[in-house]
Amino acid sequence: MSNYAYVATRARSRRSRLLPSEAYNQLLNLELSEIARYIQDLEYRREIDRYGSKLSGADLIETALVDNLAENIGDFLSFSTGQLRELLTIYAEKYRVENLKNILRGINQNMPSEDIERLVCPLNNSDKELYGRLYDSKSIEETITMLEGTNYYSTLRRAIEGRSTDSLQPLEDALDLTYYRDLVDNLPSGGPDAEVYHNFIQLEVDIANLKTVLRMRHRGIKGHKELLINGGTLKVDLLSSVQSLSDLSNMLEGTKFQEYIIPYIKEDKPDLNSCVHALDEFVAKRSKRFSYLYPLSILPVLDYLLKKEREVRNLRAIVRGKQTGLSNEKIEELVVV
Q1: Beta-carbon neighbour count of residue 250 at 10 Å?
Q2: For the whole prediction, is pTM greater than 0.85?
Q3: What pLDDT is attached to residue 304?
Q4: Pick from 222, 220, 290, 285: nearest CA to 257
Q5: Residue 84 in 3-state DSSP?
Q6: I need a surface site. Which of 16, 114, 135, 252 has the fewest CB within 10 A?
Q7: What whole-number percentage of the chain has pLDDT above 70?
Q8: Cβ-proximal residues to 233 (8 Å cutoff; 6+ apart), any chain
Q9: What domains does the chain contain, in order, with CATH numbers?
């Protein structure tokens, strides 16, 4: 039996402790040591204390943030029971996909293993052990070989054998496709809680497809229906037939996505970053609305996790921006509130 009421209550409690949007303006005017003290007084004391003796500055803050996010995801997987746990387990694979992307990028860029580790949030001890072995890989091929026996080995093996350049994009696309197809294939049936979750996953699939089409058409790449995911409200055949950003803009007129995309791609110089931010904001608004309309469903948990991801992403953007000497104005463009 699923313990929706208990887990939703835990999600709402943690959501109330997230940073308010006005706090980011204050953080922009603080030094890195002051930011560390600021977040230590919030939800990150345990992680700051854990790593404070061996790390400092941006490295300390980023490690604490990623570790805290992993802890939160793991907590909700352990809190939940029944179908709720099954759905969360499948949904949480998105974090493993992101971890693998970060590891592959780090290996590809010859980053030191400790730097790669700071980008990765293992959800359990098994993940931590696996990733620990991957950090020391000497090549992308070796990394994939070391993944044999996992859910993503065959996906990455096919992708690397089929790619025509050294780009990691085919590998990342293959990971995303595998994740979303599994998500859609395992949608539950029956009851309003299943229906609202289905609607939310449809939205996530639509957003993923739109981001893929935006990226390709902006670079002048046409077609590639195989990179799009079935299961959303926007038909894959129609999306893949779009030839340009202008065509995409025309296609989306009258849909729920028009206000989040059309203003950013109608100009001579499309602003894809702002467009992606707007789409992420749309997902955040929908998850918040669904979580209130269906309090005894998975949505309060997903709403909290999305907000937690955003908090961690924003804080990392601030500390890394400060470390590299970006102006407050540039950093502010990276922060989504």
Answers
A1: 11
A2: yes
A3: 96
A4: 285
A5: helix
A6: 16
A7: 99
A8: 202, 203, 206
A9: 187-297 (1.20.1690.10)
